[in-house]
Amino acid sequence: MRILTGGYTPDMGGVGEGIGEVVAGARDEALAGGQLHFSGTVAAAQSPSWIAKHPTLDVVYAALEGRGVVQAFRRVSETSFVTLGRPVEAGELTCHIAVAPDASALAVSCWGDGRVLRMPLDSSGVPRERQLLPAAIDPYGTGVPVNSGAQEEPESEIEQARRALRDAAGAEYADLLAAEEPPPFIDENRSDDLKLFDDSEEADAASRASRAHQVRYLPHGLVVTVDMGYDLVRFWRHGADGQLQFAQQVVFPRGSGPRHTVWHQSGHLYVITELSHEVFVLAPNAMGTWRIVSSVAFGGGLLDTDTAAELAPSRDGAFLYAGVRGSNTIASLRVDGAGESVSAIALVDAGVNWPRHHAVVRDTLLIAGQLSDEVASLSLDDRTGIPGRVRHRVDVASPTCLLPLR
Q1: Sign of torsion, CA 114 197 195 300?
Q2: Is residue 379 within 8 Å of 33, Cβ to Cβ?
Q3: What pLDDT digit, counting tens, does each position of 205-218 carry?
Q4: If DSSP codes are grouped into helix, strand and coil, which group holds residue 198?
């Protein structure tokens, strides 16, 4: 199997040269458990810290983080890509790209200035113009109500969203969208979960900054964006003109730092928090409004200075894997019930230093060790969901992203 790697180059303190390629076993193999081999740099680029693939074309998109731009690359040979079109300005420290399933556009997020953008794609996969989405507002620094905007949509649009979300959940999980709104999730150990306002003197907006970290396309035209700095998860839907329109937001506990998301086949959205080391479960209520329904910590054994990174599901969606930088571990979590809750089951050694990103390919967990300059593979037990020891490893300079070419 071929795996493209993104990483940091000297402009961002790394030692990489651009987009690389790792081969697990044979190049055309569907599994990733074989010996790892680094084929080399397939496209020279400055700090392509995140890469994403076009759904139908041999085109990949890179967030050139230090330059604050998005660059498309086209494959021209088995081991080589060339630039496709000009770089498109995004924002300060561009860090994540998602490609629409219908290849109509890219969604881009920027860590440095909190920008979130939509970039339409032409038929050859080249990003053209930009739509800059409305900036996030800090709910803990301005007195903005929690989940603001969720009740402002016309009823017809709410009903449309409700039907779409019911379709996404499927008949098996239709009870999640019951006619009566469920009671709000309350964590008795957190007194701040249900605060509608925070107007205390300590809520100093100047001490917090918007940090957009990830974008994800959800079924039926929804898009979710995560703002780690403002503790926000925002939802968007496509308007008649194809542009994204704000739908609602969910406010997380202050300082939790939502970072990345996983869409689950049950219709739930799982969110990993970088600073509080938790996974939150979000689901829509009867009106189609998203809300937190449960959360779980990774468990004991973590350091106060640890920061969570990626969250990835097992191939059957029964387990989740959370990377933790600092203690350099992988937290394994089990999806319970109909997807409405998650339980921590194990914390294992990642086998690398600073597990920035990881990906699951069937029975193998591939991990990018940013500070140990390597990619490692761990075997996964389908029955228990717990990763084993490192199976193989290979030297890769400053890896930050893994993109298996399935």
Answers
A1: positive
A2: yes
A3: 567 999 999 999 99
A4: coil
Which pair of tokens denotes residue 274? Answer: 């970088």
Q: Which of the 8 DSSP states describes residue 121?
A: B
Q: How many residues does the chain have?
A: 406
CB 187 within 8 A of CB 195: no
How many alpha carbons fall within 13 Å on the CB side of residue 396?
38
Sequence-distant (≥ 6) Cβ neighbours of residue 268 within 8 angstroms: 176, 281, 282, 283, 293, 339, 340
pLDDT digits (tens, 9 = 90+) for 287-312: 999 999 999 999 888 999 999 999 99
Structure tokens that stand for 226 in this block:
């995560």
CA–CA separation, 368 vs 372, rounded Å?
A: 9
Q: What's residue 196's pLDDT?
A: 33
- How far is 15 from 7, CA to CA, in rounded Å? 9
Q: Which amino acid is at 228?
A: M
Give the mean model confidence (pLDDT) for residues 34-53.
98
Which burial class, exposed, middle or buried, applies to 151 when counting CB atoms under 10 A from its CB (0-12, 13-18, 19+)? exposed
List, in order of start, the domains of the chain with CATH numbers: 2-404 (2.130.10.10)
Cβ-contact 108, 94 below 8 angstroms: yes
pLDDT in tens, 191-250: 343 333 344 435 455 679 999 999 999 998 999 999 999 999 999 999 989 999 999 999
**pLDDT tens per residue, range 339-387:** 999 999 999 999 999 999 999 999 999 999 999 999 999 999 999 999 9
